[in-house]
From TrEMBL:
Domain of life: Bacteria
Classification of source organism: Bacteria, Bacillati, Actinomycetota, Actinomycetes, Micromonosporales
Keyword flag RNA-binding: no
MF terms (GO), sorted A to Z: lyase activity
One Pfam assignment: DPRP
Keywords: Lyase
SUPFAM superfamilies in the cross-refs: Cryptochrome/photolyase FAD-binding domain
Protein name: Deoxyribodipyrimidine photolyase-related protein
Presence of the UniProt keyword Lyase in the record: yes
Annotated organism of origin: Actinoplanes italicus
Amino acid sequence: MLLERDATTSTIVSAVTAWNPRSAKSGGHPGWSGTLSPSDATPPDLSGYACALRQTDVMRTRWLFADQLGPHFLDDPGQQVLLIESKAVFRRRAFHRQKAHLVLSALRHRAQDDSVRLVRAETYAQGVGNQPLTVCHPTSRAARGLVRRLPDVEMLPPRGFVTAPQDFVAWAGGRDHLRLEDFYRHARRLHGVLMDGAEPAGGRWNLDADNRQPPPRGAQRLDVPAPPEIVEDEIDHEVRAELDRWQREDGIEFVGNDGPRLFPATRQEALARLRHFIEHRLPMFGPYEDAMLAGDPWMAHSMLSPAINLGLLDPAEVIEAAEDAYRSGAAPLAGVEGFIRQILGWRDFIWHLYWYFEPRYRAVNELKARKELPKWFADLNADAVEARCLSDVLAGVRDRGWVHHIPRLMVLGNYAMQRGWRPGAVSDWFHRCFVDGYEWVMTANVVGMSQYADGGRMSSKPYAAGGAYVHRMSDYCGGCRYDPKVRAGDDACPYTAGYWNFLARHEREFAGNHRMAQPLRGLHRLTDLEALVEQEKARGSRAP
């Protein structure tokens, strides 16, 4: 298992995979314009490149954004690094307090290296000044626009993802619909991941049928060891005191509760979490990856997304470690395949869609959902909510800035879509409130998949479900004041009633979708639909 990777080697490999003459001839894609140049039609001279890597004194300083903190963003371990801590970032949005802490802690821990200089400034432009720099392609359009405006900053191709932009563009070109399953199989072949020759390991591409079980009956927690605890240090204490001062003196606002740091802020912490997950939690990940338990927010999930999205881990090394566990017999194929699907498949897919789709994609709203987020939801006021699943998940966001993907999609996103909340506002909420949330992460994840606001460009049906799904996949319904089987009346489950009301409201839009044919037939069999619709109209935006 290769967890510590030579930075020079990984950069040369990155240079090889970033060059693709086929995509260079095609002219690339508007979303990536400015990243690729005519020189991409010529293979890089790796011998000269390797020679340059040894001459660190002639290399430009590398500016690292706060989500580019790992060694794979450098050309040499000793390369000089500039980090900028921009206060304006925290003025623009009310981020979760623990997210702000994690980002600042990660920046300041990275600045402990002798080759790193940390500049604290109001804006990135002020921090850059007039010095010549290189920077890897940023992860947002706003940051890329800033880099392009800075005269002495050279932008390099993106790192921190597995599939190169031109390879995605070559795959996506000419397709009417972009689907994860198709991209994931392409990426498996392209990168030789979980492949036995030309065939997928085990003979099947998708092992979902072996995963996604309900939680063990009667269990309060999964029988897996907890991940290594994060031990805060003086840097964390300094960050906490500074955030208190920002709130008190500068009027900078946050959401959510402060608390002990729960996620890695250093590469060493991230590697420890990765090793522990591979050895102790990955074997149990697959069966219960979609299950929810009120007493176990972590389940067998890796909790590595904050570290990967900060750039502390290279997704390639995470994938390699997981595949090594399968090849050595330490973890079952189904769980390993499900985990790798999330990183090689979903994470890369979402990243590329952010750039491939037009900039106005963030504002698409095919279902015409125009209601604003109610105050109780925006403020993470879980105590105002009686529905047990929503209250517990919202409390998880408030207290940890993290819940795993099923509460995000089927509890939070599902509820927002049923109520017709504005997709852009929902996306912004996820961006601000989750420790692993970034604009590129949440745009397609929330606007496209969770809220189905693009009308099906990236998913074949809306992820809408009633209380029966929550009842099957969790222990939340036991002890809840609402009954998942009841859709009308005082005991009506907000998800069950909301589901049918959502279908009734959008029957015309879904009429041509074959995957929605069965639910729409069920809608027509309801004898109390009119009363249900009136009930949900009266419920309005108040907390359920």
